[in-house]
Amino acid sequence: MMPKQLRWFFPLFFWGLVSCSKSDKALRIKGSDTEVNLAVELAEAFYATNSEVSLAISGGGSGLGIASLYNGQADIANSSRPLTDDEKRLFADKNIVLLTNIFAEDATAIVVNSTVSIDEIDVKTLGEVFDGSISNWKEITGENRPITIYGRQSNSGTHSFVQQKLGIQFSTRAREMNGNAQIMEGIKVDPSGIGYVGAGYLLNSNHREVKALKIKKNTDDVAISPLDKEAIKHNRYYFQRPLYQFIPKSSWQKAKSFIDFERSDKGKEIIIKSGYYVMDH
Are strands 175-177 and 148-152 parallel, antiparallel or unpaired? Predict the structure, then answer.
């Protein structure tokens, strides 16, 4: 089945309305592919009772969303990482004041082809896999298979997050994919594949050919699954993080009704059902 973000009709169907409608009724949301499916679910439910607002939703990565704010091409940037110091300086130099909404928490799942004969991995070994120091599964599982890394482009917030948490630079041999769906599809057909996707995406997709590895910080620690809600609630999973929305102050009034919807009981219900965790305000 086509990934939902590609079936999402608002960006095309409402393009004419966005172009000619009152600016306070046209909301452009761009950015993180981690958040795009959730943004679609929220926007569909929001539009059901706010049909006077036209919405355009697209992914492309956290960096693209943030750049779109800077260029005046978005009203909300979904981002799976905080702003960098350079980005803060750029916005300050242009006198753009950004407001920050942390609306959910995500766990990044490390996924492998289901034929890989491990169910958990420690952080040190994972770092050596992703930076290319370990290039064959034989060193980990005893099976002589060259490891194929599936990742994201450098403008992806998830790329930056995983790299930072592991304290590495990704191997130059890593395949750069456009989003969660491409990573999952690649690993499904590749018995040597390993990569990373949002746990929310994993929970809401057919992934029998792919499995999420449990992660342990040290070799003698208990391994934790990204799908363990209680562990995430108590901040025990190594790759968990807040999800951000950056809104220019000039766009706040037209974005506020959507932000309020996200914080409502209905919005929280959608966030939880999509595999994410609700932040308290």
Answer: parallel
d(CA 171, CA 105): 28
Token output for 70: 């800077």
What distances in angstroms separate CA 32 from CA 9, 38, 59, 155, 182, one per listed residue? 18, 10, 6, 10, 15
Structure tokens at 16: 């004419």
Measuring CA to CA, which residue among 257, 220, 199, 238 is closest to residue 76?
A: 257
Alpha-carbon torsion angle 125, 127, 130, 132, nearest 10: -80
Spatial distance between the Cα atoms of 266 and 262, rounded to a whole number of angstroms: 8
Q: What are phi and psi of 55, to 5 degrees?
A: -120, 140
Question: What are the structural domains of the chain?
Answer: 7-105+242-278 (3.40.190.10), 107-233 (3.40.190.10)
Which among 180, 164, 177 is positioned nearest to 275, based on CA atoms? 180
Nearest CA to 36 out of 79, 75, 81 is that of: 79
Cα 190 from chain centroid?
22
**Which residue carries 């890989």 as its tokens?**
116
Q: pLDDT truncated to tens, each residue of the chain (281 aa)?
A: 333 333 333 343 232 333 334 567 899 999 998 888 889 999 999 999 999 999 999 998 999 999 999 999 999 999 989 999 999 999 999 999 999 999 888 899 999 999 999 999 999 999 999 999 999 999 999 999 999 999 998 888 899 999 999 999 999 999 999 888 899 999 999 999 999 998 877 876 667 899 999 999 999 999 999 999 889 888 899 999 999 999 999 999 999 999 999 999 999 999 988 878 886 64
